[in-house]
Design goal:
This protein is of the alpha/beta class. Helix content is 39%, strand content 15%. The chain has 17 helices and 16 strands. Strands 9-8-7-11-14-13-15 form a 7-stranded mixed beta sheet, with helices on both faces. The chain has a 3-stranded antiparallel beta sheet with strand order 6-5-10. The chain has a two-stranded antiparallel ribbon with strand order 1-4. The longest helix is centred in the first third of the chain and has 59 residues.
Length: 513
């Protein structure tokens, strides 16, 4: 039996070795090359008769050992580094094979998912096509409006008339005109107004100013008290020869619960505008205006601002004031408001699809609420602190969601406050007034004669008149009589865009008039 030399382990110059008994030592050529072997690097095993035997004695403190094997068994020395490399290679190969199999399974799952989605999309498209064809054949559409009206009430007029249910059966003309609107061009501009009380004349004058100057077709959504429906129909049906607009008359509608509270908020029916996204569910974008609005430029111009919205903006309004020293919100408000001076909701451009989808941050709950969920909680929390009704609620809402508002300049919503204390709307001074807002009843008194003169000129003009001789020249003479007032001193900014709009209307091809 060969003698193994004792040596302290580990020597720095030798690799780790594994020594196995079980084959003749002299049958391996490399055995002779190992003259000095570390015991702790050797494993000696005997398997004779099925019973293995290992003998290794390590002396205390010396780090040496004696090793031998049973007689009749040889030695086999194997480099441990080679064994580790082989094992690592085998493991890598197995892992690579498993990775390829897993990758193939992943690709197959994605492929199956894509095929399933494509199939579902095809089924949905075919279903929508079938539904649209069925609606055209059967004149459908009433059921949708009935579903939308299931939570609404119609506000009656007179002291003894209360709320009652709304449905296509009681208002058949509503759904018929609504279907007609759906078939119009996608370029149709949608404009909404709410008229209550003595607002018929103002509303008709506003509609006339929009029709005179606009280029693309207009769809008017008129929300009015019942006693005004007949008058609106008589006047607007007499303008059918224009063929540039369509209209739908709706009852005043509020949520069934708290309908009376909503109606008396600020002015009669003023808060109706808050529910337009929930009533006009198939209208994508809408321009809401108060009845005391006059368009001095085509509606097309403000409608084009929708294209300037970024991905987070859902509505556009003008500031309540340009000069903080005369601002109302920053001096008197007892609730949050947007920006430095608040916003005015008399002209409100809306992407109602986004409004219906958005979840709004608020100060009532940590959870975000959708448009239809947030209105009543806002009213309950702030009803004792608000002065301007629905406009205050909009200020609170956009105070918590400032990223959702597009602010357009003051010449899109020009009011007496912009001139009665001196001119403070720079954009109007440079470009003229685009939209005139005669709030505070200035169309009907002598406090601001320049506003009243423009209103009466547009009210009295006819569609077939020569606008230069019947509108511009007489109006210029009237405005010259107002120079004793602050607003009258800058009457040229009132005429600038009105003159340009009339000139542009004559320069357009006859098909666009």
């Amino acid at each position: 039996m060969p003698r193994l030399v004792r040596e302290r382990w580990p020597p720095p110059s030798y690799p780790r070795l594994a020594h196995f008994c079980g084959s003749r030592a002299d049958s391996h050529d490399h055995l002779a090359s190992w003259q000095r072997l570390p015991c702790s690097g050797l494993q000696l095993w005997s398997s004779a008769g099925g019973k293995g035997r290992r003998r290794s004695k390590e002396r205390e403190g010396g780090g040496t050992c004696d090793c031998d094997c049973a007689p009749g068994f040889g030695f086999q020395f194997v480099n441990a580094g080679l064994l580790a490399a082989a094992a690592e290679a085998a493991t890598a190969a197995t892992a690579g094979r498993l990775w390829l199999e897993e990758d193939m399974r992943r690709y197959l799952r994605v492929l199956v998912l894509c095929l399933g989605c494509g199939f579902c999309s095809l089924l949905y498209a075919l279903n929508q096509l079938a539904v649209s064809l069925e609606e055209e054949e059967t004149g459908g559409g009433g059921n949708l409006k009935a579903a939308a009206a299931s939570w609404l009430t119609v506000s009656g007029h007179g002291a003894g008339k209360g709320a009652r249910s709304v449905g296509p059966k009681k208002h058949p003309g509503w759904s018929n005109r609504y279907r007609l609107m759906k078939k119009q061009s996608s370029e149709t501009m949608h404009l909404a107004v709410v008229a209550c009380g003595e607002r018929l004349e103002e509303t008709i004058t506003m509609i006339k100013s929009a029709i005179i100057f606009s280029i693309q077709p207009l769809q008017f959504h008129i929300f009015a008290e019942d006693q005004l429906h007949h008058s609106f129909t008589n006047i607007l049906s007499g303008w059918k020869f224009l063929q540039t607009f369509n209209y739908t008359i709706y009852p005043i509608t509020f949520p069934t619960e708290n309908a009376a509270e909503w109606k008396k908020l600020f002015k009669p029916c003023a808060s109706q505008r808050l529910f337009l996204p929930l009533i006009l569910t198939e209208v994508d974008s809408l321009l809401y205006v108060d009845t005391d609005i006059l368009f001095l430029r085509p509606v097309d111009d403000i409608w084009s601002l929708l294209k300037k919205f970024n991905s987070t903006q859902i509505a556009a309004m003008a500031p309540e004031h340009e000069e903080p020293r005369i601002g109302w919100y920053n001096r008197f408000a007892r609730h949050p408001y947007y920006g430095k001076t608040g916003i005015n909701s008399g002209v409100m451009l809306m992407n109602m699809t986004r409004m219906r989808r958005k979840y709004f941050k608020n100060d009532m709950t940590t959870a975000r609420l959708q448009w239809g969920e947030i209105l009543m909680p806002l009213l309950k929390k702030y009803k004792l602190n608000i002065t301007w009704g629905d406009q205050d609620l909009l200020n609170i809402m956009f105070f918590h969601n400032p990223e959702s508002l597009f602010v357009f300049p003051c010449h899109w919503n020009y009011r007496p406050d912009h001139c009665i204390y001196g001119s403070n709307c720079r954009e109007a001074e440079e470009e003229g007034i685009f939209i005139l807002h005669g709030n505070r009843g200035v169309y009907h008194d002598d406090k601001q004669p320049v506003f009243r003169a423009i209103y009466e000129a547009l009210r009295n003009c006819s569609f077939g008149d020569d606008k230069v001789h019947s509108l511009l020249y007489p109006l210029e003479l009237e405005l010259q009589k107002t120079v004793h007032t602050y607003c009258g001193r800058i009457h040229k900014i009132f005429m600038k865009q009105l003159t340009k709009s009339i000139q542009d209307s004559y320069n357009r091809p006859s098909k666009e008039r």
